[in-house]
Write a structure and sequence with these properties.
binds arginine, metal-binding, urea cycle, Arginase, Chain A, eight-stranded parallel β-sheet, arginine metabolism, Arginase, binds manganese (II) ion, hydrolase, alpha/beta
Length: 358
């Protein structure tokens, strides 16, 4: 590995300006994939976020930004399991397995060339590839994950019958195939790489009952919206990073997985599973500003932007929220800069039957 996070951190020292106030090399990869759930359109997320001009904005901040292009599945329709096969319980397991294997390889090789690798999703199943790829480049106990999401994404086929991988990446990353009680050959490459003590959640508000049990049993730290109300986002991120060994004086290699549905649907309306009562954009930015302060961030994904779920204006607004999160990550707002292009009119939010069922 040419550059490691600890090297960046070591070079800077803890008392010096954080890396996000300095120039870093950023590789940006698109994960154009939406087969981890059943709504199409999340594969258009990378294009929508690129269109906001975020790569140019990151370059203008003084960083070296390299567009690593979009990864998409080459095969037109890879063979999936037939209904009579028990493995068909997990939808598109072949696609999910093959896509993420390639993604994992792309992320680990990109980490050899860049200080930070950003992956634009894609549905949340792509975190299998990004986190596994990151895990390949560091000692097992160094990998730490901050999961910012309305959902816990820790189901297994035994705790949820949705069949959607995007609700299950974490159980796979922590326990592999064993958690699934299925032999999915296209996922055999993905061995467990994440320890429950190295995972912290922020933003939860739609946790399934059996996910709650899993979180408790594994002793995973979770800051749900209620904790954010009580403690404030600043304190919550500080505690989360501390617990991950990714804050002051620490040497974890941090991955942040940011599901845009962690944000309130008024900020990020175009996403597959919106849940009201979420983070303000400002709170999301605060999370990322604090994260980057310590130089432990090595990879990040921003997922579940689905430009097809809403008007073009809402889609642009959602993609722009992703842009603001990335600018916060790389130092845009430190020192009180007024962000350019932040004045998009708020699109009209009509009651959405998914979030306003009655
Ligand atoms: N990445 C997401 N948006 N996940 C939503 C998951 C919803 C639900 N808990 C499930 O397991 O299917
Ligand atoms: Mn979510
Ligand atoms: Mn998610």
């Amino acid at each position: 590995m040419l550059l490691s996070c600890s090297r960046v951190a070591g070079r800077l020292g803890r008392s010096q300006p954080p890396p996000n106030a300095r120039s870093v090399s950023i590789g940006v990869l698109g994960a154009a994939f939406d087969k981890g759930q059943t709504r199409s359109g999340a594969s258009l997320g990378p294009g929508a976020v690129r269109q906001t001009g975020v790569l140019k904005d990151l370059t203008a901040l003084g960083h070296t930004v390299r567009d690593l292009g979009d990864l998409r599945l080459q095969e037109a329709v890879p063979a999936e399991y037939r209904a009579e096969d028990g493995r068909a319980r997990m939808k598109n397991a072949t696609s999910v397995g093959r896509f993420n294997q390639q993604l994992s390889e792309r992320v680990s090789s990109a980490l050899g060339q860049h200080d930070v690798v950003v992956t634009l999703g894609g549905d949340h199943s792509i975190a299998i590839g990004t986190i596994h790829g990151h895990g390949q480049t560091v000692r097992h106990d160094k990998l730490a994950v901050l999961w910012v999401d309305a959902h816990a994404d820790i189901n297994t086929p035994l705790t949820s019958d949705s069949g959607n991988f995007h609700g299950k990446p974490l159980s796979f990353l922590m326990r592999g195939m064993e958690a699934f009680h299925l032999d999915l050959p296209d996922l055999r490459w993905c061995k467990p790489c994440l320890h429950p003590s190295k995972l912290v959640y922020i933003g939860l508000r739609a946790v399934d009952p059996l996910e709650r049990v899993a979180i408790q049993e594994f002793g995973i730290r979770a800051y749900a919206m209620r904790e954010i109300d009580r403690l404030g986002i600043d304190k919550v991120v500080e505690m989360a990073l501390d617990q991950l060994g990714a804050g002051v004086g620490a040497d974890s290699s941090l991955h942040v997985s940011f599901d845009v549905d962690a944000l309130d649907p008024s900020e990020a309306p175009c996403t597959g599973t919106p849940v009201r009562g979420g983070l303000s954009l400002r709170e999301g930015q605060t999370v990322m500003e604090e994260v980057c302060k310590w130089g432990t961030l090595r990879s990040m994904d921003v997922v579940e932007v689905n430009p097809q779920l809403g008007t073009p204006q809402q889609a642009q607004y959602t993609a722009d929220a992703a842009r603001h999160l990335l600018l916060a990550t790389f130092g845009r707002y430190r020192g009180g800069n007024a962000p350019e292009g932040s004045q998009l009119p708020r699109p009209e939010i009509k009651p959405d039957p998914r979030t306003h069922p009655h």
